[in-house]
Amino acid sequence: MTVALVTGGSRGIGAATAVALAADGWDVGIGYRTRGDEADRVVEAVKQQGRRAIAVAADLTVQEDIERLFNTVTTGLGPLSAVINNAGVVSPAGRVDEYDAERLDNVFRINAISAFLVAGAAVRRMSTKHGHHGGVIVNVSSRAAVLGSAGEYVDYAASKAAVDALTIGLANEVAKEGVRVLGVRPGLIETEIHEPGRLDRLGTTPPLGRPGKPEEVAELIAFLASSRSSYMTGTTVDVSGGR
Ligand SMILES: NC(=O)c1ccc[n+]([C@@H]2O[C@H](COP(=O)([O-])OP(=O)(O)OC[C@H]3O[C@@H](n4cnc5c(N)ncnc54)[C@H](OP(=O)(O)O)[C@@H]3O)[C@@H](O)[C@H]2O)c1
């Protein structure tokens, strides 16, 4: 059996990834924070592909919730072979000289600290060092990590740069333990993460002339999670329409 866990799987890129993984033959555990109805719809979409799925409410800013999420998915579906470290948030648009500590705590807490904790929990459940059979971690970063997001959310960009460093460093730590660690850097993708009007304003700016669809990121994540990417680790791939 192949079992994958997708954090932030109720909506957007995570929801599309759960469905793409199911089409590839994975059973899928779906983590979400509050939007249970949407998570249930993703569970149904996975089941329509003939695979098993469960949805688990867990706030990834709470370490105990991360452990409970992993334990519930492995108890319900079986040992994990892939973890998609996808949940994330942006802050309201603003300049660095306007940020306060509360804002920074929030964005770094979910995008960087929780991403580290999820990756660590994944290693404990997949690494041969911990008695398991190996697997793949896919970290969802952002092109913002490279572009910097001036005037919008440099803090978000920096939190995603931390994710890119996590991908490189952790990949080297666990390469000989059967675990590959990869990343994706989406550009502008049509999801609810954007403030109203942002996609209308920026959507045609990528060289390909349009925003991306969550399914176009999900295809890449499903490829990276599979054995089709067997000689890849420690690298992050852009999926950004050239942006
Ligand atoms: N969309 C883009 O243009 C874009 C570009 C680059 C990178 N990304 C990255 O791609 C990832 C997914 O983004 P998206 O656009 O699909 O976002 P989205 O549509 O806003 O969905 C965010 C997901 O994360 C979950 N989540 C948020 N905070 C959480 C928490 N504290 N604990 C547990 N789950 C939490 C949400 O759960 P609920 O539904 O329960 O709230 C939801 O499932 C993020 O890491 C984002 O930074 C997105």
Automatic annotation (TrEMBL):
GO terms for molecular function: oxidoreductase activity. Keywords: Oxidoreductase. It holds the Pfam family adh_short_C2. InterPro entries: NAD(P)-bd_dom_sf, SDR_fam. The keyword Oxidoreductase applies. Gene3D superfamilies: NAD(P)-binding Rossmann-like Domain. CDD domains: SDR_c. Belongs to the short-chain dehydrogenases/reductases (SDR) family. This is SDR family oxidoreductase.
